[in-house]
Design goal:
- This protein is an alpha+beta fold and 241 residues long.
- Helix content is 31%, strand content 24%.
- Helix 5 links the parallel strand 9 and strand 10.
- Helix 1 packs across helix 4.
- The longest helix is centred in the last third of the chain and has 15 residues.
Length: 241
């Protein structure tokens, strides 16, 4: 059995999450910005499909990427250098958060539907308005061609989703994000669940208890100054890999 959460109910401890399906902890009708923030502070995230209750998860083990362990292949490094020097390409932060989310929600080959529902979009946009969720974007001649978004609390970054409209666009955005997080001393990026793609980029699994300990330490630190990266071209970050 999992907990059913009424609007003012707190989340149960993550140690009570199910082993099968791995990490399922609770369900609710709502996914508000307030509840979303409480979830991230406890190491919990939403993942569900339209028509379902909102399902809340904290899997064990947890997939993470340590920024210093981003795996940059020779071909990707060449791509990053070319992107850094290309005057038609621009890396930016927080100029189109909702648009990035909606691109991430678009149907993908071999995938039916999306977990990024309208309530999810509204809740994360609420975090973005509070300076707690951020997007990294790749623009080509004024068109948004790739990007990612996630939640940033203290010195903790929780990655959510990414998209590409041209080859390697999401990898370029990820490389820019990692460069920012390295510069700011962010020790770990939450990737939530294991995928082959994430593993190919250097992500690995750690026990949930270790994840929560690292997360609590990171949350206690001063927030990343995202405003320092807004309103300017960030292509030079790609040269740091």
């Amino acid at each position: 059995m999992i907990a059913w959460l009424e609007p003012d109910d707190p989340f149960p401890d993550v140690s009570g999450a199910l082993a099968l399906p791995n990490g399922l902890l609770a369900a609710s009708r709502d996914c508000t910005t307030r509840r979303l923030l409480a979830a991230y502070q406890a190491g919990i995230f939403p993942w569900y499909e339209a028509g379902q209750p909102v399902l809340w998860w904290s899997p064990d083990p947890r997939m993470v990427l340590f920024p210093e362990r981003l795996r940059v292949s020779r071909s990707l490094r060449k791509t990053l250098r070319a992107a850094a020097a290309d005057p038609g390409l621009t890396v930016r932060v927080d100029t189109a958060f909702e648009t990035v989310m909606r691109n991430c929600a678009a149907p993908r080959r071999g995938q039916e539907g999306t977990w990024i529902t309208e309530p999810i979009v509204r809740a994360y946009c609420g975090l973005a308005e509070r300076g707690l969720a951020h997007s990294v974007e790749l623009w080509a001649d004024g068109d948004l061609v790739g990007g990612l978004y996630g939640v940033s609390l203290g010195r903790m970054f929780y990655g959510e989703s990414m998209f590409s409209r041209v080859s390697d666009a999401s990898k370029i955005a990820l490389a820019a994000l990692v460069a920012i997080l390295r510069r700011e001393g962010v020790p770990v990026i939450d990737c939530q669940q294991n995928t082959r793609h994430l593993a190919s980029l250097g992500a690995c699994e750690i026990p949930r208890q270790e994840f929560c300990e690292r997360m609590r330490d990171a949350l206690a630190q001063e927030a990343v100054p995202w405003s320092a990266y807004r309103n300017r071209r960030l292509n030079e970050l790609l040269e740091l890999h």
